[in-house]
Every structure is written in C-alpha cells, then in structure tokens.
Amino acid sequence: MLTVGSIVIRVTDLEAQTGFWAEALNYEIREPSADDFVLLKPKDGVGPNVSLDKVPSPRMLPPRIHLDLYADGQAAEVERLKGLGAREVHWNGRPADADYIIMEDPEGNRFCVIDAGS
Q1: What is the per-residue pLDDT across 29-51, written as a single tens digit (0 to 9) for each?
Q2: Which of 26, 24, 54, 49 has its CA nearest to residue 39?
Q3: Which residues cross the membrane (predicted)?
Q4: Domain boundaries, the chain
C-alpha cells in the first residue's frame, strides 16, 4: 500500500516560501532543516508533509501538477492567502459555476482553493 508522505515544491527563495507555505497551511518546520531543503509538517499531524526544495526549475504553464486546497470558507481563505502574498489567477476557460479559484504562491507555483461546501 502507498500513501502520500510529502509533496515537494521547487522554490528559489527558500526562506520566503517556507514562511508562505507554513502560514498558508498552518504547518511547522520539521527540524533539522538545511540551506536547500525544508520539510513542513501539519501542526495537528493530519495530512501529508510539504517539502520545499531550493532547486532552479523553469516555470511551466499550465503546470503539470498543482495542489487542490479545500476550504470551508473559500472567500475568506482566498483573501487570507492574498494577504500572505498569493495572487489570484484569472483564466477565461474557468466555468462560471466552478467551485475552485486558481491562485499562485509568491513564486508563481499554482494551486486551487476549492469550496469544500459545494
């Protein structure tokens, strides 16, 4: 049996991205961390780890993979994430009744905020 242990995101500014993702997901750093790699773990112990790997990587659009983050209060979460430095991505192909909002972190890594109440 397989389980997801960690999702790895390549980043340029490890310190800034650690701060963004830790705050966005309510995660904490699992020590020890390194100059080029940080593993974030859920504070409540529920869910996969998110690892940040400082490795140069060209940005691909559309991305081949992205995170879907489920939110009970989607609008409030989108605003909170914007306050942390995320940006909303507008896409003309998004259906009017879509339950997701496309966003990207401060380095342009895309993710969706899904309305968990839908």
Answers
A1: 998 889 999 999 999 999 999 99
A2: 49
A3: none
A4: 1-56, 63-118
